[in-house]
Amino acid sequence: MPQQAFKRTRTRQPQGAVRVNPRLNLVGLVLPGQSRVDRASGLSLSLVGGTPTATVGAYGPALLCDSAEYIAATATNAQRLTTEGSIVWVGELFSGASDDASIGGITHNDNNAPPYTTLEIKRSTSNLYLAFSYDNGANFSTPGTNALAVGTGTISIVVVGTYKSGQQRFYVRLSSGAVLSATSALTGSMASSATAQFSVGERLNARNPQCAAAAVGVANRAWSDSECRAILANAWGQLFAPRTLVLTSAATVQLLRPVSDVSAGAWTPSSGLTLAPMLNEAVANDTSFITVNSASTSEVAFGTGLSPGVTTGHTIRFRAQGSGGLTVRLMQGATVISSFSPTLTTAYALYTWTLSGAEAATISNYADLRLRFTST
Across the chain, what does the average pLDDT equal? Predict the structure, then answer.
């Protein structure tokens, strides 16, 4: 059968192996509720602190993280950050977080000492902010300069942050659909270090982020404002390549009814002069019929049909009553395709028969199908 391929933008967290969207220049992307494989690099993240609990949250499978539970890439998986970068975080925040706790991103070395490399999302009780080092030394973006008040309690969010040419931009989309944003200026360029690690949760200071991360990703360029807002609107559709749907043309469903007489024989209509109008109502009407009191054959033609492309589902239905014998044949021109002889009763009943695949396969012209009624 003919096939057509369609692209459909994703609106839900993809399951299994799915191609990352190459346009965003992602160098790290993990769906921690599904696996510890970095979708961007193909490398694995290690269970470092405790045993994080998998859960299913507002954005699909996620990983519950607190101060003792997080995952991180090994040092050999240091992200290839340049002088600019972007980060995205998708998941839920819960109450009880520590101030300055990281919910995920790029963190610097285990010694918590220069040279620093940081591009991460941090939180306090009710705020979120973007944090990063910008001179490969001890200087960080100042907490609070770009803080966004997201409130308390359980909060479903999508967070996006960028840094380039001395300017950092920070966005949060709440479950209500509201988008918060902040922009601030800094001096210097983003740093890079071979000891940087890609982590989910707080891995350095034993702070408690109280979060469930569904996705954490970083890119080695600053996304534009329009790209950031597109991610906020539909993170899954932007982070991952669209789904390819291959559709096979389905069989055409047709309902054919008699439209004209071929021959009447001794059969007569209950009204009018022709047989077909007595047999073609959309809703069965037992006061509209054809009748005969002797052995005779009549034939009516169906309306023009199209080949459905399959040999299944060819069904014929009719209502009848009587005391004699009746044989109904499906014809193509003068060729008998199939026949059926119902056992009639003195009250109208519905009779149905379905062609076999072999019988349906003999139909070559759906524009020349007929029904032949033979009384005995």
Answer: 84
Using one digit for the tens of pLDDT, what is the confidence trace for 336-359?
999 999 999 999 999 999 999 999
CB atoms within 10 A of CB 79: 24
CB of 134 closer than 8 Å to CB of 122? no
For residue 279, give both structure tokens: 């047999």
> Of 162, 156, 180, nearest to 24 (Cα)?
162
Burial label for 26, CB within 10 Å (0-12, 13-18, 19+), is: buried
Residue among 310, 314, 311 nearest 354 (CA)? 314
Closest to 144 measured CA to CA, from 162, 161, 124, 172: 124
* Structure-token pair, residue 155: 């909060």
Q: Which of 362, 63, 17 is nearest to 199 (CA)?
A: 63
Q: Is the Cβ–Cβ distance between 161 and 87 less than 8 Å?
A: yes
- Residue boundaries of the structural domains of the chain: 3-243, 258-375
CA distance 300 to 365: 16
Instruction: Select from 81, 77, 80 the least CA-distant residue to 164.
Output: 81
* Average confidence (pLDDT) over 260-273: 93
Rounded CA separation 4/90 (Å): 33
- N- to C-terminal Cα distance for the chain? 43
Encoded tokens for 373: 């009624």
Q: What is the pLDDT of residues 51-77, one digit of tens each?
A: 778 889 899 999 998 877 778 765 444
163: number of Cβ within 10 Å:
25
What percentage of the chain carries pLDDT values higher than 90?
45
CATH of 258-375, one of 2.60.120, 1.10.10, 1.10.3470, 1.25.40: 2.60.120
128: closest CA among 105, 112, 109?
105
Q: Which of 42, 32, 134, 24 is nearest to 83 (CA)?
A: 134
pLDDT at 152: 86
The yes-or-no answer to whether 3-243 and 258-375 have a common fold is yes
